[in-house]
Design brief:
0% strand; mainly alpha; 98 residues
């Protein structure tokens, strides 16, 4: 026996299969997003811990080669050389974008 066509020439069974496939795709995308978010969070946490270790080393050694660099400033160092490096970078960037 032939199935009755419904909306847009599709049968009720075809619509049910399409709906199920759509639901599975949505679930898969939701899972991928959750995993990507978790990975990004872990990466940021790891980066924060790494920078904290670097900052501790920089505080112990005033002659550390990272003083006076943008990385030193990004790690949280507030010495005059690191602040000057950030200030110079910002000035160059502002001039370039003007």
């Amino acid at each position: 026996m032939k199935e009755k066509t419904t909306f847009c020439g599709r049968t009720a069974r075809e619509w049910a299969l399409l709906y199920a496939a759509e639901a599975n795709e949505c679930e898969r995308l939701r899972n991928e997003l959750e995993i990507a978010t978790r990975n990004e969070t872990m990466r940021k946490k790891s980066q924060k811990e790494s920078r904290a270790k670097v900052l501790e080393k920089m505080r112990k050694d005033p002659s550390d080669r990272r003083h006076g660099t943008l990385y030193g400033r990004a790690c949280g160092c507030e010495c005059e050389r690191c602040r000057a490096a950030k200030r110079d970078y910002d000035a160059r960037r502002k001039a370039r974008n003007a």
